[in-house]
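Fill in residues.
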């Protein structure tokens, strides 16, 4: 029996959001921006990492930004900001090493933005911001390092306004819902999908 739940949805996520126009539209909706479809976008690939399955995320540069879009179809792991800190540090290290001949001058780094699209079945709020600072074991009033990850729940009945304004996210939510229905139907009838 194959791991049909994850494989089907992972393939769906990468293929669906692998189109530049869809990424720009989804980004505009979740980031509250109004970039044109013609904005300069570059979908990037990275070697496998220890923190996310290769098919669970897409990274892309959009103008002067570096965006990580994560597909989360199970319960949200609250340590995503910690994992993303290490992930983005590796990305920046590669940019710095690749761009410095003798590390004489500094290079402008793209500003990072992190988003999670939640398509799981567990109860989760419409929108939640996860913070790296929540992982620190301190009562300090001021922290010098933080990282924010905005999670959007796009399952049926959630983020109705957002989905009504963005057909890309709405269509993806419907596709995932249909996958769940097919999986449930297969389980109900004993099918080996």
């Amino acid at each position: 029996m194959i791991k049909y739940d994850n494989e089907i949805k992972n393939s769906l996520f990468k293929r669906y959001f692998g189109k530049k126009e869809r990424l720009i539209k989804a980004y505009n909706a979740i980031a509250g921006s109004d970039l044109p479809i013609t904005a300069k976008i570059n979908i990037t690939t990275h070697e496998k990492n220890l923190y996310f399955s290769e098919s669970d995320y897409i990274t892309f540069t959009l103008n002067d930004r570096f965006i990580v879009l994560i597909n989360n179809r199970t319960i949200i792991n609250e340590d995503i900001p910690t994992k993303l800190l290490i992930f983005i540090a590796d990305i920046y290290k590669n940019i710095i090493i690749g761009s410095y001949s003798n590390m004489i001058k500094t290079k402008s780094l793209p500003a990072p933005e992190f988003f999670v699209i939640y398509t799981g079945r567990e109860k989760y709020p419409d929108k939640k911001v996860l913070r790296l600072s929540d992982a620190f074991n301190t009562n300090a009033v001021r922290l010098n390092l933080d990282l924010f990850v905005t999670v959007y729940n796009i399952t049926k009945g959630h983020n109705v306004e957002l989905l009504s304004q963005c057909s890309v996210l709405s269509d993806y939510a419907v596709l995932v819902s249909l996958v769940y229905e097919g999986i449930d139907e297969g389980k109900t009838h004993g099918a080996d999908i």
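The chain has one domain: 4-188.
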